From TrEMBL, chains A, B, C, D:
InterPro entries, per the entry: L-rhamnose_isomerase, Rhamnose_iso-rel, Xyl_isomerase-like_sf, Xyl_isomerase-like_TIM-brl
Cited Pfam families: AP_endonuc_2
Domain Xylose isomerase-like TIM barrel: 76-272
Keyword annotations of the record: Isomerase, Manganese, Metal-binding
Compositional bias segments (type: Basic and acidic residues): 373-384
Protein name stated in the entry: L-rhamnose isomerase/sugar isomerase
Region (Disordered): 372-392
MF terms (GO), sorted A to Z: L-rhamnose isomerase activity; metal ion binding
Keyword Transmembrane: no
Metal-binding in keyword set: yes
Gene3D superfamilies per the UniProt record, alphabetical: Divalent-metal-dependent TIM barrel enzymes
GO annotation, biological process: L-lyxose metabolic process; rhamnose catabolic process
Superkingdom: Bacteria
Length: 392, 392, 392, 392
């Protein structure tokens, strides 16, 4: 596990080059079906969300883009928004259409039995590609809340036909350098069946669509007992892993801070990424956070989450791949496992502190955040107006 | 399984005597964290909820009480509300305190680390006993949203001490003929740990409190793979089954119509009830619905749910207990299972139609509902004002 | 739901035409890792297993083939075995290779890091195609116990490469009219990762292999909360559903009698089959049982299981498809669900009794079995020798 | 988290005083229902198992006792066996009765519908108390494979009555300084219902029995999503935590090396232990391993497992309890979580190496094992005879 001098340099270079996207919605208020606990100082518009995301990037050095959610981040002039982001040192990342919060979508969006609703949903998807054009975004990140609450409610198969039709129409609209990532989710908000419940469904659609369609893995969207790193390894082998929505969960789609519930699992996922060379920008895998900070302050929670991904990545980079391959080839179960655990059990925080210092930032981003006075400042500045949230 | 004449009469008598309570909140709007889809004609206040509950009772004959949720059902004069219910032919059932929707409760209510918040929560519990006194309710139905999202967030053990203290204070306040039912829930809205996650926790507290404290089983609140009928049988053996919150779920706490997801499980639960003689009113087991009708119309969904419980009960009553006991004693696995399945596979709808006719109501409650014009009427009458929902 | 006269005739015709394959291994002894409880009268060789399977077919009329498991059913002359089966009125169904019970397979078969073990496993797969040729079997049913117990134990991705190689070599060997079905399984006997854990993995390999490769759905091989009928509907849409291994489970791969744990789920699966027209022989979907009768007598358990599939099928055939499609198109959630439940709640046993009488067999196959004296006879005849089981 | 000098001394003292029991059966062969892969050099009798356990203790310094399983460890003279253990430097730990591997137990042991089988099972339990007397063991460790595969197979409630009767009779037989630990298990080998499925059931029986009966937590015996550290904390609060069977699992009861599947969970469990002062010998909590080494060599796997528990314990001891309590009292979610994670993220291997050197043993027990030549020696010495395993 101990990397030699050149090995350590490569590890540090990889850590410096890492890119983790934060989502605009995680800076706003969120909650459960029971209650949204509003917090003070929360952004009131997309520009203020960009301010917060830019601060996270400034303090961590590895979060240079922000994902948008439309219409939560609707503005009149998207080019202006993108320019504002650039001024703040970040760029616009994935565009996330929302086709689940209007009354028309009660029984689904692109899978709705009503053709008029499907047409409306498709229009919104296409509008989001326009926004990609305007902002320079290269990723259309698709998640559908479509599904059924009751057996018999609709035809599972007919809904797939409708889904395929909408995906194809959207795919056609993508320009050069643009791609669509298709997210899957086992459950919620539909309870009996979701129309893209698992990676297999997303994969099959993406294969039929073509190279610009890839699977998006949200780490919180699986059935209990699912081996997520297997899915990651398999999709990488097929060239169909488009990116991640990172978060963590104990039971359902808890959307807790990534690495908070099962840091070992996060390490195993990053191990597959590293083994496949997919940390490299050329692999085109988007590492995005998708979280809800319901009870904890949002900006420091985001910083912490970025650091958690960095720590898992650093550990994965420390795995002695040659020794591991040798033990695996020998069928030495205990030794192969020990080599993996050796990296996992390493305390990588000193290494990451070094990396940050070399990047010219504070080795302790959370301490730097506390010293920045940001929390106190926005609590004053962002009084009045409507705090951003899932509903706005 | 074929009951002889006297057997059939007993089955019908039991079905006529069955009592299923409906919850006021299921008549109002509800949804997921993503969206509440408002419906037309939804009640705007507790009186209109009582109107709907009374209609469900009128059409089914077995739903003579309504559970209240405070403050969602807050009124100035609870005696007046109870009188109104009586005039409509039903009574006030369980009182459900709400200590999870105020900002103070972000980190819990009776388990909160802040003593001031705990005191406030306890005050509300005691206020709810006052409402029991005013309405004639005999059941305080306790569910706490308390729990933790992150490991380390609070002391699991200290929270139990605080919980025990609040429960004891509430218990002391109960009058003659009043009891408290303590509900457990694996998950949601807390994600890492809930303070009463399973029946064992509820049971241990109830044993320490005394005879007036019993466990409430919500059929949607268990980990995957949990055998709910075992819990029911065990609690009945211990004299600690206070009642049910019926609903159904495929994955988490979906709160779908009872019997919609796993009708065989509902039958097995009712089989344990019947075998233990706990259908009888003297057993003091409260059969209550607790559901959300997010996408389906609420009153017919409630009627359907009541009918689903009736059908499961009728099948359970048809089990040939003598033959079953004999096959079990003989260790005849296939025969014992066959006897149970024989009852389950019976179509009990004709029998229930007969029972309804003998009760002087329509054999087909849903058809009667459609003919009643209720849906159309309330859509007109309940315009304006604020539709009831979880937040109001 | 009430089929009119011509509708009823079609339902009965479909039920008469149904074909359910029973597995040779379910007639032998089986158990858990803790204990195999041997039963009296169990077959001692493949010929006696055929005797039992033929009896199940004779009594039910819909079980005309038997799946073999090699080497458990190894004989010197497979043509002779097939002729014996024909004489008894049944045929040889799927051939199931076993590459998990030799010491060489401790770390896997076709995915083993050792090329010599992989070559040995491939040889066995090819040998099984020889047996298909000799017996007239058209299905090679592939399940691999391959996987990992510990993270790091082997490369998840390299194992997929090895798997693909073995599958391709086997696929090449298939003759006209032969196909391979690729089974997936979440867990067991490998605990950390299985090499084909879900339908997506099987599907991706089958697509790359070609038309003769299809997915096999074992109803017990999914994570908790998985919607199996969705997978069935999706695979039918893609033309990649090869067949089923039917059984039922409460938690893991319990291999209980199909329909015993969740009869409603079995009905929903058959509903998707019926809606897609896949009950028809031309759809080439193989309906096979794969069960273990650890504590119950085997032949009557098999008869019961066949009947359970028939009952679920009959209910699915009774669904009023036109009314259902109309309610679905209207977005009438309650009505659509009610139409489905109406069929499920029907007691189809009288209908199936009629069907059996029209087929010239006893309307009550289990009663006929008891009268046959088979259990008593084999208990005498099959004394001495080695009872068949998983290990033999 | 950084302990000061006196803090560090206390941590080391606690680590030196830790006691982890290894199970005799983990030194023998084991497997799944599909296959037992025999290993060379496996013990052939209880004396050789003691040799292996003594070696594990010699190399780790913290495994000074061995649990026995009867009849797998049946000998003519238990006093002689205990003396042999003493000579080797260890003692006899918990006695584990086996009432699941005789044909009589097909439908259960102490819950069997047949009174003769129940009497036989009870006799064996009492015989095991005799063995406790003879060996100086203080713990009767009870796990029952009892349960049902099919709904209706037997009365859930009657089985509880039978269970209570057998437990009471066994309890009466316990001498001074002896206690019984009652293990629960969700599933396997019974599939539909187990007679002690969860901690609540075990707890309720233990409360009724008295102070000498306590709950045994096997970390692999829970439903998905269960928060095990909550159970540990709750049982400690009630004074009813008797001990652990440590192992790890990804899905069912995988019995993998403890700490291999979810090291963070193991840490959280040990955190509750440390917070409650239950690491201290006076707390009388038995820390026992219960694992199966199906594909990895057994002695080094056991050493590794002991080390995994030590590492989790060391991390738990490093938690800055004062700072944690303060952050919790302040409701500082992120800080409280960070304090916990700070300890978890520490590399405690250097600290444990120090502790070992102070104990006079090798700082790297696995390297010492490899140098010992034990594996090669027993491979020669233990040829011939019958290797120990679950069935022998």
């Amino acid at each position: 596990m101990t990397a030699n001098a050149s090995g350590k340099a490569a590890v540090k270079a990889a850590l410096r080059a890492q890119r983790i996207e934060t989502p605009s919605w995680a800076y706003g208020n969120s909650g459960t079906r029971f209650k949204v606990f509003a917090q003070e100082g929360v952004p009131r518009n997309p520009y203020e969300k960009i301010d917060d995301a830019a601060l996270v990037h400034q303090l961590t050095g590895v979060a240079p883009s922000i994902a948008l959610h439309i219409p939560w981040d609707k503005v009149d002039d998207y080019a202006d928004l993108a320019a504002y982001a650039r001024d703040k040192g970040i760029s616009i990342g994935a565009i996330n259409p929302n086709v689940f919060q209007e009354d028309d979508y009660k029984l689904g969006s692109v899978c709705n039995p009503d053709p008029a609703v499907r047409a409306k949903a498709l229009d919104h998807l296409l509008e989001c590609v326009d926004i990609m054009d305007a902002t320079g975004s290269t990723i259309l990140s698709l998640w559908f809340a479509d599904g059924l609450n009751y057996p018999g409610q609709d035809s599972l198969r007919a809904r797939q036909d409708r889904l395929a039709e909408a995906l194809a129409a959207t795919y056609q609209r993508l320009g050069d350098g643009q791609r669509m990532l298709l997210e899957y989710k086992l459950f919620e908000p539909a309870f009996y069946a979701t129309d893209i419940p698992d990676w297999g469904t997303s994969y099959a659609h993406c294969v039929e669509l073509g190279d610009k369609a890839q699977v998006l893995v949200d780490t919180g969207h699986h059935a209990p007992g699912t081996n997520i790193e297997f899915i990651v390894a398999f999709l990488l082998r097929q060239g169909k892993l488009g990116g991640f929505h990172f978060n963590s969960r104990f039971y359902a789609d808890d959307d807790l801070m990534v690495g908070a519930a099962d840091p070992f699992q996060l390490f195993r996922i990053m191990h597959e990424i590293v083994q496949a060379g997919a940390l490299d920008a050329s692999a085109n895998v988007a590492f995005m956070l998708d979280q809800c900070h319901n009870i904890e302050p949002k900006v420091p929670a985001m910083i912490r989450s970025v650091m958690n991904v960095q720590e898992a990545t650093a550990k994965a980079l420390l795995v002695d791949s040659d020794a591991l391959a040798k033990a695996q080839a020998n069928g030495d179960v205990l030794e192969a496992n020990a080599i993996l655990m050796d990296a996992y059990n390493t305390d990588v925080r000193p290494l990451l502190a070094e990396v940050r210092e070399e990047m010219g930032i504070d080795p302790d981003p959370l301490a730097a955040y506390r010293r920045s006075g940001h929390a106190e400042r926005v609590r004053e500045e962002r009084k009045g107006g409507q705090a951003a949230g899932w509903g706005a």
